[in-house]
Amino acid sequence: MEEQLSLIDLVIHASFTVQLVMALLVAASMLSWYMIVQRFLYLRSAREEMYSFEERFWSGIDLSQLYREGNEKASHGSPILGMESIFRAGFKEFSRLAQQSEMDSEAILEGSRRAMRVAMMREEERLERHLAFLASVGSTSPYIGLFGTVWGIMHSFRGLANATQATLATVAPGISEALVATAMGLFAAIPAVLAYNRFSSKVEVFSNRYDTFVDEFSSILYRQAYALRAKNKRAG
User: Where does the chain cross the membrane (predicted)?
Assistant: First the structure.
């Protein structure tokens, strides 16, 4: 009875082109797994920071005090990300525009909203980092693996031309080697697709929460801007 080839033997005895395809798929799989873990940890941290900041924001704390707390955090080297970054961008612009006596309430609010929108886009870019790579791995890996399989099968059948006896045993090892490439393509693609879909839905949830916060915070800023301008008119 002939000894059956192990998976490693199939990889070792594959043609150079198929081995190159396998190496590419292994590299793509390892890199995608690194990005999957990195994105998972980042999104979990972003969610915890968002809930923590929301609780602090709606606790009734003075907005100036909340802004100063962020300054202290930044001075200690802690990054300001997520919803707090959006808040700081809006409040900083609001404070700057409110000092200009010629600015009316609508202009102050519009400037603050514009600053928050820019900060929100920046945060969304951070959340979506590496997702394009996962999408590419998920969509292209099966085809790369299929290319390796087709090439390996072609190589096996070309070898039949020089064989004295064309049997299934002659061509089976080459076909088995080639099929490993398809399996590796699926192995790389499936986790990448699942992770991309999962992370994309999470990013959408974050984006909706950020957008809602911008609207709610804008209402607060508008009331403050209106009260400030009314106070200045009475003083004038």
Answer: 12-37, 131-154, 174-196
